[in-house]
């Protein structure tokens, strides 16, 4: 957008819309291998021999997950069993989370043999990124990285289990608020970003031997944890871009901007 005008003293605001193509890759960073970032630049040109004003701002671009349906927002429960000695049920309130969310993990274990004890409960929250070998990158092989988002461990060695009675516990994991600490799930031609929770129950028997029971939860980190808050890319054309001509034109005007499918 270009605006030519003479400004008087004071604060001036220029509104604008910028429609982005729907096939742009998401903002993604993979150390040493892949980086997509966007910047918005505003330039105020001053008369000759005067220095122009330039302002820049980083823009984070995330794709609304069109495949996320209401099923993803239902509670999730996973059952695990250790032979005939112990069963464990782990529950999450939903599979989809966003920046700053708290993830409550509900645990319920039942012992079927005497003298079992939960030594500790731990949870690991990890992000996995895979760069695909498009255009001959990486000698035709995937490049994968994993990083720890959060780890927590709760000592429970003082709590003894009773046979055939539920042993409840709760662990909470925090989704970081910063986009530099965690990225949204992504899956395009070049890169895949996914997230996983791994819960471990450390179990001690009467001889003092330790055993581990693990449960894996794939979860989705999205730009929003609600359905329908953002328009899909197919519908984005319905939002009119900022244009002084359109604003000054009477409402009877039938001008409609073209969709991305138009040629």
UniProtKB/TrEMBL annotation:
Residues 82-226 form the Arrestin C-terminal-like domain. GO terms for molecular function: protein-macromolecule adaptor activity; ubiquitin protein ligase binding. It holds the Pfam family Arrestin_C. It comes from the Eukaryota. GO terms for biological process: ubiquitin-dependent endocytosis. GO terms for cellular component: cytosol; plasma membrane. This is Arrestin C-terminal-like domain-containing protein. It comes from Rhizopus stolonifer.
């Amino acid at each position: 957008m270009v605006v030519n005008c003479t400004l008087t003293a004071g604060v001036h605001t220029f509104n604008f819309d910028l429609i982005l193509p729907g096939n742009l890759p998401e903002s993604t960073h993979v150390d040493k291998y892949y980086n997509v970032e966007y910047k918005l630049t505003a330039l105020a040109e001053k008369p000759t021999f005067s220095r122009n004003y330039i302002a820049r701002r980083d823009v984070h671009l995330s794709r609304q997950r069109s495949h996320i349906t209401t099923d993803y927002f239902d509670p999730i429960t996973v059952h695990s069993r250790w032979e005939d000695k112990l069963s464990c049920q782990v529950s999450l309130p939903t599979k989809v989370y966003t920046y700053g969310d708290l993830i409550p993990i509900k645990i319920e274990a039942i012992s079927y043999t005497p003298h079992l004890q939960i030594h500790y409960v731990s949870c690991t929250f990890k992000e996995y990124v895979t760069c695909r070998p498009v255009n001959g990158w990486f000698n035709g092989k995937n490049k994968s990285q994993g990083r720890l988002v959060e780890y927590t461990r709760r000592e429970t060695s003082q709590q003894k289990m009773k046979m055939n009675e539920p042993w409840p516990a709760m662990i909470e994991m925090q989704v970081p608020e910063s986009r530099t600490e965690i990225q949204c799930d992504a899956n395009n031609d070049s890169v895949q970003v996914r997230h996983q929770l791994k819960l471990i129950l450390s179990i001690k028997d009467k001889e003092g031997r330790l055993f581990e029971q693990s449960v894996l939860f794939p979860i989705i980190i999205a730009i929003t944890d609600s359905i329908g808050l953002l328009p899909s890319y197919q519908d984005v054309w319905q939002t009119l871009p900022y244009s002084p001509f359109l604003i000054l034109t009477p409402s009877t005007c039938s001008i409609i901007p073209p969709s991305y499918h138009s040629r």
